[in-house]
Predict the 3D structure of the following.
Amino acid sequence: MNKVGRNDSCPCGSGLKYKKCCVNNAATKIKKGPESMFQSLKAKYKKRHNIKIKDDGQIAGIRKSGRLVTEALDQAEKIIRPGLETEEINALVHDMAMKNNAIPATLNYRGFPKSVCVSVNEVICHGIPGKRTLAEGDIVNVDITYILDGYFADASKTFLVGDGGPDAKKITNVARECLRRGILAAQPGAFTGDIGHAIQSHAESNGCSVVREYVGHGVGVAFHEAPQIPHYGKKRDGVRLVPGMTFTIEPMINLGDKKLHILDDDWTAVTSDGSLSAQFEQTIVITPDGNESLTPFDLG
Ligand code: MF3
Ligand code: CO
Ligand code: CO
């Protein structure tokens, strides 16, 4: 390999300049080439942040799991209508897992009783499917995590039930755009704080608020891995993003105040002011030149 200049892109594949990346810890390893650089970055992220950087085989596994998640979201969208019991969404998501040798990750996760989270209107997240029926004008978030061949993929979408009024449309559009901007900010060499900043700026400039208590998370070989991905924050805060990191971005955006409380079932998080809350989530992987969604769907 030719000598790597300080301003050349780092051979470890991070997308950073060499001087901003491995120059200090890899002066000797550089002679051995990119694979060894990748291994040293991987070890550094595990040790410093407990982040599990994935190899191509693992990413392929998460991608396959993610395809099943997006298929299930598409099927759920098809049955959503006024009068539907949220339990029927659970049945669909559970059956889809069974037919494909997948495990619905939420079932019995820390005592969660169902195979999917279904969160209607003022429910921010972790709604438990049951007897509640959807009404014209509601919004409903369906959040699915499957484990396929040991690989976790996590994604969610908020749907309008029927046509939806102006508030329902507004909060759903703002939350979707927050995820789109968050993903755009997730570049190699950027920071977790850049993602949060992009999301918070968009939400607040539209008069909406960002939930603080729940964050995006590493995902792939476990449900919730390091790092946390806050949906608010300052540019250049947090951990630097490098290729092979897999994590969710899943902004929960409220039409009113950000304050929440948890219902007596110990799971359901609702807005304290009763205002609508919407969420979109995808699992992404950082690549040498940007990112790839492993649970892709259109964000407009
Ligand atoms: N899918 C959720 C997330 O995006 C987690 C749900 S955990 C549960 O992280 F227990 F509530 F199902
Ligand atoms: Co998640
Ligand atoms: Co989720």
